[in-house]
């Protein structure tokens, strides 16, 4: 199952309690909205929702710093 931008934003706002306005291009980790603990929670959410396994080496800013990058990365997993 793939994730869309709305699914990811909903998780970030509702489960990780991010109150700031978010869109697909909002920087998450480099802006400080996410820390390492919340990143682990986000990765667990993605793996549980999609059945995919995220490799530690794939957890980079290129793949995880915005909702749109996360969506594109998840889509690339097939």
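Sequence proposed for the structure above (78 residues):
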């Amino acid at each position: 199952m793939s994730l869309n931008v709305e699914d990811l934003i909903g998780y970030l706002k509702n489960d990780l309690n991010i109150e700031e306005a978010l869109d697909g291009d909002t920087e998450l980790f480099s802006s400080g909205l996410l820390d390492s603990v919340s990143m682990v929670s986000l990765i667990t959410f993605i793996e549980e929702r999609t059945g995919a396994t995220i490799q530690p080496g794939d957890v980079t800013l290129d793949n995880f710093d915005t909702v749109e990058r996360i969506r594109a990365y998840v889509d690339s997993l097939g």
